[in-house]
Structures are given as structure tokens and as C-alpha cells.
Amino acid sequence: MTMPMTASVIEASEEFAPATVAELERFLGENARKVKKPVYPVGGRTALHYGYPLCDPGTVVSTARLSRVVDYPARDMTVTVEAGIRMEQLNELLDRERQRLPIDIPQLHRATLGGVLATNSNGPRRYGYGTLRDYVIGVSAIDGRGNLFHAGGRVVKNVAGYDLCKLMIGSLGTLAVITQVTLKLRPVPETSSWLWCSYPTWQQLDEALERLTTTATRPVAMIALNARAARQIVNEIHLDVPVESPTLALAIEGTQKETEWQSSVLKDELSFTGASAMYDIPGHHGESVWTALTDYPVVTDEPLTFRANMLPSRAAGFMERADATGISLLSHIGNGIVIGHFPDDWISWEQSLAILNSLSHQAQENRGNFVILQCPDEWKRDLLLWGQPESGYQLMKKMKAAFDPEGVLNPHRLFVKA
Amino acid sequence: MLVERLRTIVGNDGLLFDPSELLVYECDGYVIEKKVPDVVVFPTSTEQVVAIVKLCNEMDVPFIPRGAGTSLAGGCLPIGGGVMIALTRMKRILEVNLRDRYAVVEPGLVNVHLTQHLKGTGFHYAPDPSSQGACTIGGNVATNSGGPHTLKYGVTVNHVIGAEVVLPDGTIVQLGGQVEDVPGFDLTGLFVGSEGTFGVCTKVTVRLSRDPSAYRTMLGVFNTVGEATNAISAIIGAGIVPAALEMMDQGIVEAVEAAFHFGFPLDAGAVLLIEVDGLEVAVDEEASRIKELCSENGAREVRLANTQKERLLLWKCRKQAFGAIGRLSPSYCTQDGVVPRTKLPEIMDFINEVSARHQIRIVNVFHAGDGNIHPILLFDERNTEQVGRVLAASDEILEKCIELGGSVTGEHGIGVEKISFMEKLFTKETLEVMERVRTVFNPSGRCSPQKMLPTAGACGMEHIERSHPGKKASS
Ligand SMILES: Cc1cc2nc3c(=O)[nH]c(=O)nc-3n(C[C@H](O)[C@H](O)[C@H](O)COP(=O)(O)OP(=O)(O)OC[C@H]3O[C@@H](n4cnc5c(N)ncnc54)[C@H](O)[C@@H]3O)c2cc1C
Q: How far does chain A reach from its first CA to its final CA, in angstroms?
């Protein structure tokens, strides 16, 4: 196989790691006025394979040196940091005050906050705590013309001006280079615990979810796995739980009293839902479950990874169909998000394409869409990586042009070159 | 001609153009600047909104969406006249799906009507502005409204996942949807809080939340505002996030007590209304920690609302506090600023100082847990010299908020009222980027001209001089 296009473009590009925001402003401003070469912002380089392949060498702009803690008024429960800070470092800082950003980040030790924003990273806790859009209260960024702008501020409630923070989240570095971020924080709960339930059939798992609609408990994560994914995760972290059928994993957090109470009530509520087995995974064992589930979408050797979104109530049905094809599947099933890895023993492109089309069609029928997170670069031009264009597609293209009129920031990563 | 063409779209009873009838629409909750629209239309469907917007484009007249008109920042002021699109007849609840935790509603639906509709289901729509008995979901989306319970549950944007919008050129676009992680930019999140400048929202998909299974509602009584603000800092600093943490100072307590006879201590310098919610097994523990922290910071007593009736009365006192202000003064002006919560003692001292220096009485009732202050300046409209001092005092307080690292609006919006502060909050480059973003949605500037941005609006309409603060509601 030839080297993927993206990797070779990165390799052929120059590298620039500005030490200050002003340096970066100057660089982007000059670039837009003169050479107009592509600019590839990078943080921890964990997600460079997202989106359409890069075409032309340009400059890789690394935020590695923009990683200061600007202000951490812990008693205000906000933190302002530069975008290049590693998530692991940020988490350690917050943990010292028993605070956190309650969002699970894959590849913590490498990922930077800027990259996390650009890709809208998240994990199991999204069910209970939401996603980055609920925590980012301020952003500074530099647009494609070298214009430094700020949105939001450092206070938890603020409606002055348009909320450009929302635009930055998930924009994949196509609108601006994020330089600084202010986050709203939460206290770290005393303890957390998982409940691991096996169901003989997807239908029974779905009935359990239906039952949970009005549960007296408040799970913070609701994950479904097919046997293949469950096996992978359990092998990785050496758990002794059954993995041969669909699994529903529920997490609860809170004080010791709260988690104990919830755990026992959940078991009661689920006792008539046909679970073939139910296991508690409390305390430190639970920690490795969090990590394994969070890293699942990105830590893979499989050829293709997709993310489908749909109404949560349709996710079990979707998984049942997909399960039959041999795909490994994890779902944030309370949020209607299903992530799947195609197995590497499928060699035929035609076979893969047929399954992709059918799954994508099914997601759309359930009001969702179908995004391909990674696959070989040479497949990409024939695929709708970002799903069927949404109704706001034209507005999004105009938005790109408004922030980056020269089209230098990650060109064609979101909007494929015609 | 315009009126005739509009009549063919919305029918005879779907529009107002008689000058006497238009008077109601000359302003919203912000009454300092006034302007009547040329005509008010009441569409009943998205298609009618499209036809109205297209007509406005064809005839080159400005237009502005309006909900209940409770905005406190002049968001509904029809600068340049034109067509006001009132959405109050589009108020259906189109879909409620509990399993998938969403509801699709029309924009004219009154906030509290959704709450009432959901009662008994175990679910609710979280944002609860104090004006919820009147304001519309569309207006909430446009202003990104907050409310007492946003401390724990977030503001409107945290609970809106989709919006159908008629863009200023008349095309319909669906932003977001009923599902999460819609590919592409988060235009839904951007639309929320755009104050009517990105088009007319014709449907909203809101996230529904589970009802908490238990509450503990407390009243902390303090001798001074300073002690109360220290207690707030201590509670938040201890890592407790109550569902609500509201403060009322002596002036407000006096007025509220006269109106509702709750039994508030009239000699207290400040009271805190604190609510924790969650699981029954947890709320007592949290409540007792809060009680301790209040006592450590000088609380005279911490009372627990013992019955649901008592709890509701406490909330009634809080949410209708503004209604009681009429007892204190013929006119009043509510400000809306934000400071980092640990700066509350400083801003409260400053407000005191401003009050003394300008000889303007100021009372306070606000979302303390969020650092979102609402100083209410009391005055007499007929006294023009006093009015000047009120405006000066307001501006000084807002400037102090900026200086302390905060913002000039936590929930009421920029509208026309605070446009002059935008240049103090944001750099020229930032305003230019915002301008570009606005142009993506609203290139002609015909939709809600001269709102939000100091440069907004291509129509070159006159900006009315601020002459006197009005009788504004608090929240
Ligand atoms: C007594 C009182 C208490 C209040 N308490 C609070 C509070 O606790 N928290 C809070 O945040 N606010 C509060 N407010 C302010 C106000 O109620 C909110 O801003 C509310 O969201 C406005 O809703 P509305 O339907 O009245 O909108 P309007 O006042 O009619 O409009 C507000 C803005 O939204 C735009 N708009 C309205 N509908 C649409 C639509 N369908 N599409 C696009 N744009 C639209 C308008 O053009 C305008 O710019 C209070 C106001 C009062 C009078």
C-alpha cells in the first residue's frame, strides 16, 4: 500500500510551532495576504486522519508551545488555558482541586484541548453530562486571515455577542486556529460504578432501555456493545464478565450512598428485563472500563470506523442489523450514537460499500446520518465521509468562506474538493 | 400595497396596521426607546412566514420577529419600521417523545405551557426564566434565556438540539434535528442567542430532562449582603452545585414580604434562596452541608421549606419579586451584569458605593450562584435630573462588571440597549468576525436591523437617543 495521502502531505509540509499568539497571528496574516498556502493546525496529532485527505503540502502549525495555564480561579469553577495543553496535564491540574471537565477524552496523554475542541471529542459520560458545547464558555482563535478574535468570556453565564464558541467545537480546524479556551468545571464525585448486563437478544436489551426511560436512578453513561466489541474491551482490561451476547453497561456516579442506592435500584428495575447476567464493577476496576470504552473509537487497527447518529430508541435495532455483518459495535445508546469498526478480514471493497450504504440508509431513516471517522485514504473520494449533506450545508460552506476567505485552513477536509 | 399583499398571505384577522393598535408593539420590556412597526402580522404556519419574508425582500422593507415582547433589551424594537412578525399564533406542541427525550414545538408556545403539558410524565423542559408565564420558546431561543435553575441545568442553548429557521431570504433551513451529533458546524448552537438577527425560528426541538426525585429548598438569613455573598463563594468553592442559589437583599425582601406575607425577616440584610435537588438519598446530606457553610459565614438561621406549599410560595416570592417593586418606587430600571462568582462581594460593595454617590436607591434580587447580578435602580421618571443619575449609575455598574472579568449581560441580551458596550467587551477584530457571521445568515441586513452589533444593519436607520430609563421588569 502506498503511504496515505494525508501522512505524505504532512511529511512534505513545513512545520511551525509559534511560541506566542502574536507570532501565529502574524504568520496567518502574511500567509493569507501573500502565499496563500494550506495551513494544517495540529495539537496531539491523534485525529489527523479525520475527513478528506489533504491535497497539497503547506505549513503544519503546531500548538505545542501554546500550552500555558492562563488562569485557574478554582473557586469560580472555571479555568482558562492555552489550546496546546495536553488533556492529561489539564486533568491533573483540575484534579488537585477535586474538579474536572466531565467529558471523556480518548488518548488523554496525547490529545490537546484545542484538538479536543476541533473534533468535539467525547465518551460515555455524554449521557449524563453533555458534550463540550455545554462546558466551553470562552474561546480565542485566529481566523484564516490572521484575525485574532474572542468569543464568550470567563463567566459561566454570558449572552453578549454571537456564541462563536459553538462554531469552533467540531469545526476540525477549518474555520480558525484555536489558541485559548475557558471551561466551566464540575466537582469530582466521590465515587463511580458500572453495572454490566448481558442480554440474550437485542430485543431484550431494547426492552431494558425502554424500562429505563423512567428509572428512579440517574445513570451518567449508557453503553451498548455487541459481543465482538465486548470481547475486545474485556480482553484489554482483564475483566471476568460474560461477553457472548449484547451487553448493556450503565454507569452511576455520586456519593458512596448515592451509588450504592442506585446500583441496587437499577438491578431491581432491570430484574424482569431478561438479562442473562448482571455484574457490578465498582471502584478502581471501573476506572479501566471508562478508559477502554472511551478509547474504543480511536484505538483500532481495523480498516474503517464509522459513527452513525439516530433516535436513541432506534439504536438497538440498528445494532442488531449491523451485528449480523460481523462489525464490532459500541453505542452511546442513550444518545443514539453508534460507533462501529469494520473487521480487517473483509477484503472486498464492494462488500464494504454495500454494507456502508445499507447502514447509512438505516441511520437516515431514523432521522440521523452516517459519518466515516477513518478509512484508507484511497477509499475516501468515493465516500460521503460526513454523511448526506445536512439542510444547513450551504450555510456551512458560507461560514467557512466568512472565516477563511482564502481557503487556507485545512482545505477540503470537511467540504470535499469538487 | 404592502398591507394588501400581506393580507393575501395571512388573511384579514392576521394583521394589524391601525396606528392605535400598533401602539402595543412600539416596544418590549425595554421601554426607553420606542418605535412602531408599519404593520404587525400573525402567521400561523412556516409557509406563511416564508411568504411574508419573501414579500419583505421584494418590497425592500425591514422585518423583525417577535414573541411575547418580554425582552428587556429592546430586541423587539422595529428600527426603521417595517413588518413585525409576531409568532404568538404558532404555538402548537407538535411532538413529544419521552423515550428519545425531546419535544418539537412551535416558537410562539409559552414556556410554562410546555411545563404544564409535561406534568406527570416525569420529564420537564429545564430553562425556567422568571417570565416563563408569558415568554415564548422562540423568544427564549433567540435570547438564550436563563432562569433560577440554570446554575445546575444550564441555559436555553444547553437544551435546544434543533431549529427550523426561515432565513432572511425566505429559504427554510433545518439546523440540528431530533438527534445528536449532526455532522458539520453546530449552527443550532450559534443560532441560539442570535437575537432575531439570523432569521425567524419556526420550530424548535428541545431536549427534555428527567424531573429530580427530591428537593430541599432553604432560606438562609444573613445580617449583611457581604456575609451572604461569602456564603455563596463557600458553597460553590466546596464543590456543591445547588439547583438554584438566588439572593434577595433587604430592600427587595421588604417589598416581597408586603406583597406575599411569606414571613421573611424584615431586619435581615440579605436572604439566600437555595435549592438542592436530585436523589432522595442525597439531598439531605447536601442540604446539611450547605446549612453548615451558611452558618460558618454568619447566617443567623437557615430555614427549610417543610412542605411543597411552602416551597412553591418561596419560589413565587422570588419569581414575582419584580411585581412587588412597584411598592418601593414609581419607576425602576433593572440591570443585568455578570461577574466571576467569587467577585460578588466586590461588585455588591461597588453597587452600594454607586448608590450612595449618585443618591439612587438600588435593590438587588438575582441569580447569585451564577454571578449574574440584577441591580434594580429606583427612581421617579418625572425627575429628569434623577434619570440622568440612574443612567450614569447603570453604566458604571456594567463597566465595573467588565473590569472584574465579567460581562454586561448574562441573560437579557444586547438588543439595542447595550450595543454601546459591545466595543468595550470585544475587540474590533472580534466584532468584524461577528459581522461576517451575521452576513452569512442575513446578508441584506433586512432582518432585525441594528441589533446586537454596533455596526449591524445595512438600512442606515436612525438610532434613537437614550433619554430616560423606563419602568422595566426585573428577573
Ligand atoms: C418579568 C420578567 C422576568 C424575566 N426573567 C428572565 C429570566 O429569568 N431569565 C431570562 O433569561 N430572561 C428573563 N426575562 C427576559 C425575557 O423574558 C426573555 O428574554 C425571553 O426569552 C423573551 O421571550 P419573548 O417571547 O418575550 O421574546 P420577545 O421579547 O418577543 O423577543 C426577544 C428577542 O427574540 C427575537 N425573537 C422572538 N421570537 C423569535 C423567533 N421565533 N425567531 C427569531 N427571533 C425571535 C426578537 O426579535 C427579540 O430580539 C424576563 C423578562 C421579564 C419581563
A: 25
Nearest ligand 1 atom, CA B72: 15
Q: Do B370 and A150 touch (CB under 8 A)?
A: no
**What is the least distance, in Å, from the CA of B11 to any CA of chain A?**
30
The hierarchical CATH code for the domain B93-210 is 3.30.465.10
Measured from the CB, is residue B78 less than 6 Å from ligand 1? Answer: no
Is domain B324-403 classified as CATH 3.30.70.2740?
yes
B466 versus B408: the higher-pLDDT residue is B408
Please name the CATH architecture into which domain A304-387 falls: 2-Layer Sandwich (3.30)
The domains of chain A are located at 69-187, 191-295, 304-387
Q: Which of B44, B63, B135 to mutate to test the pocket of ligand 1 (most atoms within 8 A of CB)?
A: B135
Of B180, B190, B436, the CB nearest to A335: B180
Residue ranges, comma separated, of all CATH 3.30.43.10 domains in chain B are: 2-86
Asked if the C-beta of A75 comes within 8 angstroms of chain B's C-beta atoms, the answer is yes
| pLDDT tens-digit map of B442-455 | 999 999 999 999 87
For ligand 1, whether the C-beta of B273 sits within 6 Å is: no
Residue B275 main-chain phi, psi, to 5 deg: -125, 130
Helix spans in A271-408 (H): 283-295, 315-323, 349-365, 377-380, 393-403
| A304-387 matches A191-295 in CATH topology | yes
Q: Is B87 in the pocket of ligand 1 (CB under 6 A)?
A: yes
Distance B210 CA to ligand 1 centre (A): 25
Nearest in space to A218 (alpha carbons), one of B163, B432, B153: B153
pLDDT by position in tens, chain A (length 418): 455 688 888 889 999 999 999 999 999 999 999 999 999 999 878 777 888 888 899 999 999 999 999 999 999 999 999 999 999 999 999 999 999 999 999 999 999 999 999 999 999 999 999 999 999 999 999 999 999 999 999 999 999 999 999 999 999 999 999 999 999 999 999 999 999 999 999 999 999 999 999 999 999 999 999 999 999 999 988 888 888 999 999 999 999 999 999 999 999 999 989 999 899 998 777 889 999 999 999 888 888 999 999 999 999 999 999 999 999 999 999 999 999 999 887 767 888 899 999 999 999 999 999 999 999 888 888 899 999 998 999 999 999 999 999 999 999 888 876 6
Please give the DSSP secondary-structure letter assigned to residue A371.
E
Residues in A 339-398 with any Cβ partner in B closer than 8 A: 366-369, 371, 386-387, 390-393, 395-396, 398
When the candidates are 3.40.630.30, 3.40.50.720, 3.30.43.10, 3.40.50.12160, the CATH number that belongs to B2-86 is 3.30.43.10
CB A52 within 8 A of CB A147: no
CATH class of A69-187: alpha beta
In this prediction, residue B474 has a pLDDT band, given cuts at 50, 70 and 90, of: very low
How far CA A68 is from CA of A86, A173, B270, in Å, comes to: 10, 20, 40
Q: Do B434 and A78 touch (CB under 8 A)?
A: no
Distance from CA of A22 to the nearest CA of B (A): 14
Contact B440 A402 (CB under 8 A): yes
Interface contact A392-B192, CB threshold 8 A = no
B445 within ligand 1 shell (Cβ under 6 A): no
Q: Which residues of B touch A306 (CB under 8 A)?
A: none
Residues 6+ away with beta carbon under 8 Å from A74: A97, A99, B237
Q: What is the DSSP letter of B367?
A: B
CA angle A198, A203, A209 (to 5 degrees): 70
Q: Which residues in chain B are classed under CATH 3.30.70.2740?
A: 324-403
Query: Alpha-carbon Rg of chain B, whole angstroms?
Result: 22
Task: Enter the pTM of the model.
Answer: 0.95
The CATH fold assigned to B214-306 is Alpha-Beta Plaits (3.30.70)
**Looking at per-residue confidence, does B383 or A142 come out higher?**
A142
pLDDT in tens, B222-240: 999 999 999 998 998 888 8
The structural architecture, per CATH, of the domain A191-295 is 2-Layer Sandwich (3.30)
* Residue B304, phi then psi, degrees to nearest 5: -100, 135
Closest by Cβ to B182, choosing from A77, A166, A390: A390
Residue B104 to chain A, least CA–CA distance (Å): 14
Q: What is the number of alpha carbons within 13 Å of residue B119 lying toward its C-beta?
A: 5
A150 at B interface, C-beta within 8 A:
yes
CATH 3.30.465.10 domain range(s) in chain B: 93-210
